[in-house]
Write a structure and sequence with these properties.
This protein is mainly alpha-helical. It has one domain. The chain is built from eleven helices and four strands; from the N terminus they run H-H-H-H-E-H-E-E-E-H-H-H-H-H-H. A four-stranded mixed β-sheet has the order 1-2-4-3, sandwiched between helices. A hairpin with a 3-residue loop joins strand 3 and strand 4. Helix 1 packs parallel to helix 8 and helix 3 crosses helix 8. The chain is elongated and about 70 Å long. It binds zinc ion.
Protein backbone atom coordinates (compact mmCIF):
# COMPACT_ATOMS: atom_id res chain seq x y z
CA UNK A 1 0.00 0.00 0.00
CA UNK A 2 1.39 3.32 -1.11
CA UNK A 3 0.62 6.26 1.14
CA UNK A 4 3.45 8.72 0.78
CA UNK A 5 2.76 11.77 -1.27
CA UNK A 6 6.18 12.17 -2.88
CA UNK A 7 5.80 9.66 -5.70
CA UNK A 8 4.61 11.12 -8.94
CA UNK A 9 1.64 9.44 -10.51
CA UNK A 10 1.75 11.57 -13.62
CA UNK A 11 4.39 9.53 -15.42
CA UNK A 12 2.86 6.07 -14.92
CA UNK A 13 0.99 4.53 -17.78
CA UNK A 14 -2.35 3.04 -16.75
CA UNK A 15 -1.72 -0.31 -18.45
CA UNK A 16 -4.88 -2.16 -17.46
CA UNK A 17 -6.84 0.83 -18.61
CA UNK A 18 -5.23 0.97 -22.01
CA UNK A 19 -5.73 -2.77 -22.39
CA UNK A 20 -9.37 -2.75 -21.41
CA UNK A 21 -10.19 0.33 -23.41
CA UNK A 22 -8.37 -1.03 -26.45
CA UNK A 23 -10.10 -4.38 -26.13
CA UNK A 24 -13.61 -3.06 -25.84
CA UNK A 25 -13.43 0.10 -27.90
CA UNK A 26 -11.12 -1.10 -30.63
CA UNK A 27 -10.64 -4.83 -31.14
CA UNK A 28 -14.21 -5.85 -30.43
CA UNK A 29 -15.65 -3.73 -33.26
CA UNK A 30 -12.60 -4.45 -35.44
CA UNK A 31 -13.00 -8.24 -35.20
CA UNK A 32 -16.75 -8.03 -35.62
CA UNK A 33 -16.29 -5.82 -38.69
CA UNK A 34 -13.53 -7.89 -40.28
CA UNK A 35 -15.46 -11.12 -39.83
CA UNK A 36 -18.42 -9.42 -41.55
CA UNK A 37 -16.24 -8.48 -44.52
CA UNK A 38 -14.78 -11.98 -44.65
CA UNK A 39 -18.25 -13.44 -44.66
CA UNK A 40 -19.37 -10.95 -47.29
CA UNK A 41 -16.61 -12.07 -49.66
CA UNK A 42 -17.31 -15.71 -48.82
CA UNK A 43 -21.05 -15.50 -49.42
CA UNK A 44 -20.66 -13.26 -52.46
CA UNK A 45 -24.38 -12.70 -52.39
CA UNK A 46 -26.00 -9.51 -51.14
CA UNK A 47 -29.15 -11.20 -49.88
CA UNK A 48 -27.31 -13.87 -47.87
CA UNK A 49 -25.01 -11.22 -46.54
CA UNK A 50 -27.84 -8.99 -45.34
CA UNK A 51 -29.59 -12.00 -43.84
CA UNK A 52 -26.44 -12.78 -41.87
CA UNK A 53 -26.16 -9.19 -40.60
CA UNK A 54 -29.83 -9.26 -39.59
CA UNK A 55 -29.32 -12.46 -37.62
CA UNK A 56 -26.19 -11.14 -35.89
CA UNK A 57 -27.97 -7.90 -34.97
CA UNK A 58 -30.57 -9.83 -32.96
CA UNK A 59 -27.99 -10.31 -30.16
CA UNK A 60 -27.19 -6.62 -29.51
CA UNK A 61 -30.90 -5.91 -29.97
CA UNK A 62 -31.86 -8.35 -27.19
CA UNK A 63 -28.91 -7.30 -25.01
CA UNK A 64 -29.61 -3.57 -25.24
CA UNK A 65 -33.37 -4.16 -24.92
CA UNK A 66 -32.85 -6.10 -21.71
CA UNK A 67 -30.50 -3.45 -20.29
CA UNK A 68 -32.99 -0.75 -21.17
CA UNK A 69 -35.92 -2.62 -19.61
CA UNK A 70 -34.06 -3.41 -16.39
CA UNK A 71 -32.78 0.11 -15.87
CA UNK A 72 -36.20 1.55 -16.74
CA UNK A 73 -37.85 -0.68 -14.14
CA UNK A 74 -35.22 -0.16 -11.42
CA UNK A 75 -35.15 3.62 -11.70
CA UNK A 76 -38.96 3.64 -11.73
CA UNK A 77 -39.06 1.60 -8.49
CA UNK A 78 -36.64 3.95 -6.73
CA UNK A 79 -38.57 7.00 -7.90
CA UNK A 80 -41.91 5.55 -6.75
CA UNK A 81 -40.43 4.57 -3.40
CA UNK A 82 -39.70 8.19 -2.47
CA UNK A 83 -42.33 9.82 -4.72
CA UNK A 84 -39.80 11.59 -6.94
CA UNK A 85 -42.13 11.27 -9.89
CA UNK A 86 -40.10 13.41 -12.26
CA UNK A 87 -37.35 10.77 -12.13
CA UNK A 88 -39.70 8.13 -13.51
CA UNK A 89 -38.45 7.26 -17.00
CA UNK A 90 -40.95 8.03 -19.73
CA UNK A 91 -41.68 6.83 -23.26
CA UNK A 92 -41.34 10.44 -24.30
CA UNK A 93 -37.63 10.25 -23.37
CA UNK A 94 -37.28 7.03 -25.32
CA UNK A 95 -38.74 8.79 -28.39
CA UNK A 96 -36.28 11.67 -27.99
CA UNK A 97 -33.33 9.26 -27.92
CA UNK A 98 -34.59 7.56 -31.07
CA UNK A 99 -34.98 10.90 -32.84
CA UNK A 100 -31.45 11.83 -31.78
CA UNK A 101 -30.07 8.65 -33.38
CA UNK A 102 -31.88 9.40 -36.65
CA UNK A 103 -30.75 13.01 -36.56
CA UNK A 104 -27.16 11.91 -36.07
CA UNK A 105 -27.38 9.58 -39.04
CA UNK A 106 -28.80 12.26 -41.32
CA UNK A 107 -25.83 14.43 -40.38
CA UNK A 108 -23.30 11.64 -41.04
CA UNK A 109 -25.10 10.80 -44.30
CA UNK A 110 -24.81 14.40 -45.43
CA UNK A 111 -21.04 14.48 -44.79
CA UNK A 112 -20.52 11.10 -46.46
CA UNK A 113 -22.50 12.13 -49.54
CA UNK A 114 -20.19 15.08 -50.04
CA UNK A 115 -17.06 12.92 -49.60
CA UNK A 116 -18.31 10.22 -51.97
CA UNK A 117 -19.30 12.79 -54.60
CA UNK A 118 -16.02 14.67 -54.39
CA UNK A 119 -13.89 11.53 -54.78
CA UNK A 120 -16.38 9.82 -57.08
CA UNK A 121 -15.80 6.39 -55.57
CA UNK A 122 -19.32 4.99 -55.77
CA UNK A 123 -19.01 2.73 -58.82
CA UNK A 124 -16.00 0.80 -57.60
CA UNK A 125 -17.51 -0.29 -54.28
CA UNK A 126 -19.00 -3.67 -53.41
CA UNK A 127 -21.44 -3.96 -50.49
CA UNK A 128 -18.77 -5.29 -48.12
CA UNK A 129 -16.54 -2.35 -49.08
CA UNK A 130 -19.12 -0.07 -47.46
CA UNK A 131 -18.72 -2.09 -44.33
CA UNK A 132 -14.94 -1.74 -44.58
CA UNK A 133 -15.32 2.02 -44.90
CA UNK A 134 -17.74 2.03 -41.96
CA UNK A 135 -15.18 0.21 -39.83
CA UNK A 136 -12.38 2.60 -40.79
CA UNK A 137 -14.52 5.63 -39.93
CA UNK A 138 -15.73 4.07 -36.70
CA UNK A 139 -12.24 3.04 -35.59
CA UNK A 140 -11.07 6.59 -36.30
CA UNK A 141 -13.75 7.90 -33.95
CA UNK A 142 -12.90 5.23 -31.33
CA UNK A 143 -9.19 6.07 -31.47
CA UNK A 144 -9.97 9.70 -30.87
CA UNK A 145 -12.04 8.87 -27.76
CA UNK A 146 -9.39 6.42 -26.53
CA UNK A 147 -6.56 8.94 -26.75
CA UNK A 148 -8.70 11.70 -25.27
CA UNK A 149 -9.72 9.60 -22.27
CA UNK A 150 -6.12 8.59 -21.54
CA UNK A 151 -4.94 12.20 -21.74
CA UNK A 152 -7.73 13.32 -19.39
CA UNK A 153 -6.81 10.62 -16.90
CA UNK A 154 -3.13 11.53 -16.98
CA UNK A 155 -4.00 15.18 -16.36
CA UNK A 156 -6.20 14.28 -13.41
CA UNK A 157 -3.60 11.88 -11.98
CA UNK A 158 -0.89 14.52 -12.22
CA UNK A 159 -2.86 16.63 -9.69
CA UNK A 160 -3.22 13.70 -7.27
CA UNK A 161 -0.06 14.12 -5.22
CA UNK A 162 -1.59 14.23 -1.75
CA UNK A 163 -2.52 10.92 -0.09
CA UNK A 164 -5.50 10.46 2.23
CA UNK A 165 -4.29 10.08 5.81
CA UNK A 166 -3.28 6.56 6.82
CA UNK A 167 -5.56 6.65 9.90
CA UNK A 168 -8.59 6.95 7.65
CA UNK A 169 -7.36 4.30 5.21
CA UNK A 170 -6.59 1.90 8.09
CA UNK A 171 -10.09 2.38 9.42
CA UNK A 172 -11.60 1.66 6.00
CA UNK A 173 -9.41 -1.36 5.29
CA UNK A 174 -9.94 -2.88 8.71
CA UNK A 175 -13.72 -2.75 8.51
CA UNK A 176 -14.48 -3.19 4.83
CA UNK A 177 -12.83 -6.13 3.04
CA UNK A 178 -13.97 -4.94 -0.42
CA UNK A 179 -11.67 -1.96 -0.01
CA UNK A 180 -8.84 -4.33 -1.05
CA UNK A 181 -10.02 -3.65 -4.59
CA UNK A 182 -8.69 -0.10 -4.29
CA UNK A 183 -4.95 0.30 -3.87
CA UNK A 184 -4.60 4.07 -3.42
CA UNK A 185 -6.59 6.99 -2.08
CA UNK A 186 -5.61 10.50 -3.04
CA UNK A 187 -6.87 14.04 -3.04
CA UNK A 188 -6.94 15.62 -6.47
CA UNK A 189 -8.46 18.41 -8.51
CA UNK A 190 -11.53 16.34 -9.25
CA UNK A 191 -13.92 18.71 -10.95
CA UNK A 192 -16.74 16.94 -12.62
CA UNK A 193 -19.81 18.80 -13.73
CA UNK A 194 -23.41 18.36 -12.64
CA UNK A 195 -24.32 14.97 -11.18
CA UNK A 196 -21.08 13.88 -9.60
CA UNK A 197 -19.84 15.43 -6.46
CA UNK A 198 -16.18 15.28 -7.13
CA UNK A 199 -14.87 11.94 -6.07
CA UNK A 200 -14.27 8.94 -8.26
CA UNK A 201 -12.45 5.72 -8.88
CA UNK A 202 -10.39 4.90 -11.92
CA UNK A 203 -8.41 1.87 -12.92
CA UNK A 204 -4.72 2.55 -12.84
CA UNK A 205 -1.67 0.42 -13.50
CA UNK A 206 -2.02 -3.32 -13.67
CA UNK A 207 -5.31 -4.41 -12.08
CA UNK A 208 -5.26 -1.54 -9.65
CA UNK A 209 -7.87 1.04 -8.85
CA UNK A 210 -7.19 4.46 -7.51
CA UNK A 211 -9.76 6.48 -5.60
CA UNK A 212 -9.55 10.21 -6.22
CA UNK A 213 -11.31 12.64 -3.92
CA UNK A 214 -11.67 16.37 -4.32
CA UNK A 215 -9.14 18.22 -2.17
CA UNK A 216 -11.95 20.40 -0.83
CA UNK A 217 -13.27 17.35 1.04
CA UNK A 218 -9.94 17.10 2.85
CA UNK A 219 -10.55 20.53 4.37
CA UNK A 220 -14.31 20.51 4.91
CA UNK A 221 -15.37 16.95 5.84
CA UNK A 222 -15.03 15.12 9.13
CA UNK A 223 -13.27 11.74 9.15
CA UNK A 224 -16.57 9.90 9.28
CA UNK A 225 -17.95 11.88 6.33
CA UNK A 226 -14.79 11.25 4.34
CA UNK A 227 -15.13 7.53 5.04
CA UNK A 228 -18.75 7.68 3.82
CA UNK A 229 -17.51 9.20 0.54
CA UNK A 230 -14.72 6.60 0.22
CA UNK A 231 -17.20 3.76 0.85
CA UNK A 232 -19.42 5.13 -1.90
CA UNK A 233 -16.45 4.90 -4.28
CA UNK A 234 -15.67 1.35 -3.13
CA UNK A 235 -19.34 0.66 -3.92
CA UNK A 236 -18.67 1.56 -7.57
CA UNK A 237 -15.80 -0.93 -7.74
CA UNK A 238 -17.72 -3.63 -5.83
CA UNK A 239 -20.54 -3.24 -8.37
CA UNK A 240 -18.09 -3.48 -11.31
CA UNK A 241 -19.20 -0.12 -12.67
CA UNK A 242 -15.93 0.57 -14.52
CA UNK A 243 -15.85 -2.79 -16.31
CA UNK A 244 -19.52 -2.52 -17.20
CA UNK A 245 -18.96 0.88 -18.76
CA UNK A 246 -16.29 -0.62 -21.06
CA UNK A 247 -18.67 -3.35 -22.15
CA UNK A 248 -21.33 -0.76 -22.93
CA UNK A 249 -18.72 1.29 -24.81
CA UNK A 250 -17.79 -1.73 -26.94
CA UNK A 251 -21.41 -2.42 -27.84
CA UNK A 252 -21.88 1.24 -28.69
CA UNK A 253 -18.78 1.08 -30.95
CA UNK A 254 -20.18 -1.97 -32.73
CA UNK A 255 -23.56 -0.29 -33.26
CA UNK A 256 -21.80 2.78 -34.61
CA UNK A 257 -20.25 0.65 -37.37
CA UNK A 258 -23.66 -0.75 -38.23
CA UNK A 259 -25.26 2.71 -38.27
CA UNK A 260 -22.65 4.04 -40.66
CA UNK A 261 -23.07 0.90 -42.77
CA UNK A 262 -26.83 1.53 -43.02
CA UNK A 263 -26.18 5.12 -44.07
CA UNK A 264 -23.66 3.99 -46.71
CA UNK A 265 -25.94 1.36 -48.18
CA UNK A 266 -28.83 3.84 -48.30
CA UNK A 267 -26.63 6.45 -49.93
CA UNK A 268 -25.28 4.11 -52.57
CA UNK A 269 -28.81 3.05 -53.47
CA UNK A 270 -29.83 6.67 -53.71
CA UNK A 271 -26.92 7.51 -55.96
CA UNK A 272 -27.67 4.60 -58.23
CA UNK A 273 -31.09 6.25 -58.51
CA UNK A 274 -32.73 3.38 -56.75
CA UNK A 275 -34.74 3.35 -53.59
CA UNK A 276 -35.48 0.63 -51.14
CA UNK A 277 -38.77 0.01 -52.94
CA UNK A 278 -37.38 -0.50 -56.47
CA UNK A 279 -35.12 -3.38 -55.39
CA UNK A 280 -35.64 -7.08 -54.91
CA UNK A 281 -38.35 -7.23 -52.20
CA UNK A 282 -36.33 -9.70 -50.11
CA UNK A 283 -33.35 -7.34 -50.17
CA UNK A 284 -35.64 -4.42 -49.19
CA UNK A 285 -37.20 -6.37 -46.36
CA UNK A 286 -33.84 -7.47 -44.94
CA UNK A 287 -32.42 -3.99 -45.23
CA UNK A 288 -35.42 -2.34 -43.56
CA UNK A 289 -35.19 -4.94 -40.80
CA UNK A 290 -31.49 -4.18 -40.37
CA UNK A 291 -32.18 -0.45 -40.07
CA UNK A 292 -34.92 -1.15 -37.54
CA UNK A 293 -32.66 -3.37 -35.39
CA UNK A 294 -29.68 -1.01 -35.54
CA UNK A 295 -31.60 2.12 -34.65
CA UNK A 296 -33.77 0.64 -31.96
CA UNK A 297 -30.71 -1.00 -30.34
CA UNK A 298 -28.88 2.33 -30.48
CA UNK A 299 -31.82 4.11 -28.86
CA UNK A 300 -32.09 1.40 -26.18
CA UNK A 301 -28.40 1.74 -25.41
CA UNK A 302 -28.44 5.50 -25.42
CA UNK A 303 -31.34 5.70 -22.95
CA UNK A 304 -29.86 2.91 -20.81
CA UNK A 305 -26.62 4.86 -20.69
CA UNK A 306 -28.58 7.83 -19.38
CA UNK A 307 -30.42 5.82 -16.67
CA UNK A 308 -27.41 3.84 -15.55
CA UNK A 309 -25.57 7.02 -14.53
CA UNK A 310 -28.34 7.56 -11.96
CA UNK A 311 -28.57 3.89 -10.99
CA UNK A 312 -24.80 3.56 -10.52
CA UNK A 313 -24.83 6.40 -7.98
CA UNK A 314 -27.80 4.91 -6.12
CA UNK A 315 -26.13 1.46 -6.02
CA UNK A 316 -22.85 2.94 -4.76
CA UNK A 317 -24.88 4.79 -2.09
CA UNK A 318 -26.48 1.45 -1.13
CA UNK A 319 -23.05 -0.03 -0.54
CA UNK A 320 -21.83 2.91 1.53
CA UNK A 321 -25.07 3.11 3.56
CA UNK A 322 -24.95 -0.61 4.38
CA UNK A 323 -21.50 -0.08 5.87
CA UNK A 324 -21.79 3.26 7.58
CA UNK A 325 -25.54 3.79 8.00
CA UNK A 326 -28.25 5.51 5.97
CA UNK A 327 -28.35 8.62 8.14
CA UNK A 328 -24.59 9.27 8.10
CA UNK A 329 -24.43 8.99 4.30
CA UNK A 330 -27.60 11.08 3.82
CA UNK A 331 -26.17 13.86 6.02
CA UNK A 332 -22.83 13.69 4.20
CA UNK A 333 -24.46 13.96 0.76
CA UNK A 334 -26.61 16.81 2.04
CA UNK A 335 -23.47 18.67 3.12
CA UNK A 336 -21.31 18.11 0.01
CA UNK A 337 -22.54 20.96 -2.24
CA UNK A 338 -21.65 23.52 0.44
CA UNK A 339 -18.06 22.26 0.66
CA UNK A 340 -17.11 22.62 -2.97
CA UNK A 341 -17.47 25.20 -5.74
CA UNK A 342 -19.88 23.14 -7.79
CA UNK A 343 -22.97 23.67 -9.90
CA UNK A 344 -24.64 20.80 -8.03
CA UNK A 345 -27.27 21.89 -5.58
CA UNK A 346 -29.33 20.16 -2.99
CA UNK A 347 -33.04 20.70 -3.39
CA UNK A 348 -36.25 18.74 -3.65
CA UNK A 349 -36.02 18.25 -7.40
CA UNK A 350 -32.28 17.60 -7.79
CA UNK A 351 -30.71 14.18 -8.23
CA UNK A 352 -28.83 14.73 -4.98
CA UNK A 353 -32.17 15.36 -3.30
CA UNK A 354 -33.44 12.10 -4.80
CA UNK A 355 -30.46 10.17 -3.40
CA UNK A 356 -30.84 11.72 0.04
CA UNK A 357 -34.59 10.99 0.01
CA UNK A 358 -33.94 7.28 -0.71
CA UNK A 359 -31.49 7.09 2.21
CA UNK A 360 -33.80 8.98 4.59
CA UNK A 361 -36.70 6.72 3.63
CA UNK A 362 -34.62 3.66 4.52
CA UNK A 363 -33.45 5.20 7.77
CA UNK A 364 -37.12 5.78 8.65
CA UNK A 365 -38.00 2.16 7.87
CA UNK A 366 -35.20 0.94 10.13
CA UNK A 367 -36.72 2.66 13.15
ZN1 LIG B 1 -20.49 7.86 -7.39
Amino acid sequence: MFRESDRSLGVSLPISDVMLLTLYFFFYPLFAGLSFIFLGVLLNNEIHYLLFLDLILIFPFLFTGLLFYQSFKNLRDYALEVKYFHFIPSWYEMGLHLIRQVYYVIFVGFILTIILRVFNIIEILEPWDYLGLSIIISLGVQSYFLVKSIINKQELLSTAQEAVSSEIIDQVELNHPKSQMISEYRFADVQLPSLFLSAGVMSYGWKRNICLISRYFNWKLTDEELIAVILHEIGHIANNHIKKSYLIGGTEAFLRIMRIFCVFTGLILLMQEQTIFTLDPIFSLLFINLIFLVFLSSAFLSIFHYYRIFLAEIRADDYSAMAIGNTVLADTLRKLPSTIPSPVSYNQSSFLGFRVAILRQRAKKEK
